[in-house]
User: Fold RING-CH-type domain-containing protein from Chlamydomonas eustigma.
Amino acid sequence: MRSRLPEPYLRAFDVEDGTICCRICLDSLNASDLSSGLAIKLGCRCSASGFDVMHRSCAAQWFGSIHQSSKCEVCSSEAVGLPTDVKDKIRSGTSSTTSLHPGPEAAPIATILDQLSSFPSVPAFLGNYSAFCLLPATITCITLTLFYMKVIEVDNGTGIGLTIGISALTILHWFLFPRK
Assistant:
C-alpha cells in the first residue's frame, strides 16, 4: 500500500490517490522514508516537480554504479543531495557489480553512445548531421535511379552513373559549404 506525502513531493506523481514512488524501482515511498534517511531528495532541477525523490539504496546503485555521474539524467543538473559515500564512489571511478535487478550486467548507455560516436568509419566532421541525412539521401538515390531507368528510359549503368554523379556533387557541396 502506498503512503501519502506532503503536497510539495506530489507534483510529479500526482495520481488520483496522491501517492508517490521511487523513480528508479517504482516502489512506494512515504514521509517517514524521507525523515529516516531511507529515501533522499536529489536537489536537482527535478525538485520543482517532486521527481527527485528516490530510495537511498536505489540512488546509490544508479548514480554510483550504473550512471556513474552525479548529474541527474532527467534534467542534467548536479544532484547535490546525493549521499557523500555515493559522491566518493563516483569520484573514485569504482563501481559495484551488483544491480537493482538480478540478471546479466548491462553496459551503461553512456558507454555505448561514446563507443558509437567514436566509430572509425564515420568521419567526425559529419557528426549527428550525417544520421539525419543518410536515410533521406539513400531514398533519394534509389528514387533517382528508378526515375532515370523508368521515366527517362536510360539503361541501368547510365542511371546508376547519373545517381552516383549527383551524390558525389552533393557530398562535394557538404565539404565546400559546411552547415554552420
